[in-house]
Write a structure and sequence with these properties.
With 83 residues, the chain is mostly helical. It has four helices and no strands. Helix 3 packs antiparallel against helix 4.
Length: 83
């Protein structure tokens, strides 16, 4: 997929979602974990271990998905140059 292809064709976002499906799922899970962390922080009960675990997993999930997408993009561009 070429840069700015989304601007040229309405089908490009669907192709991007298919290519980056795993990364999108990991990001959604990470956002859900961070949202759960926020809900627990607003709650009056003290469950700091669970809060810390949810925050850490959420941040690692979102960051990991970004790194994974970047690696996939670099690999695909390198393969395109070789072919």
């Amino acid at each position: 997929m070429k840069p700015y292809a989304v601007l040229r064709s309405w089908r490009s976002p669907g192709k991007a979602v298919r290519v980056l499906f795993a990364e999108a799922v990991v990001v959604v899970i990470g956002v859900a974990l961070i949202a759960a962390f926020g809900v627990l922080m607003a709650d009056a009960s003290k469950n700091s271990t669970l809060e810390a675990a949810l925050a850490a997993l959420g941040v690692v999930g979102i960051t990991g998905a970004g790194v994974q997408a970047r690696i996939k993009a670099k690999t695909q561009s390198a393969l395109a140059r070789l072919v």
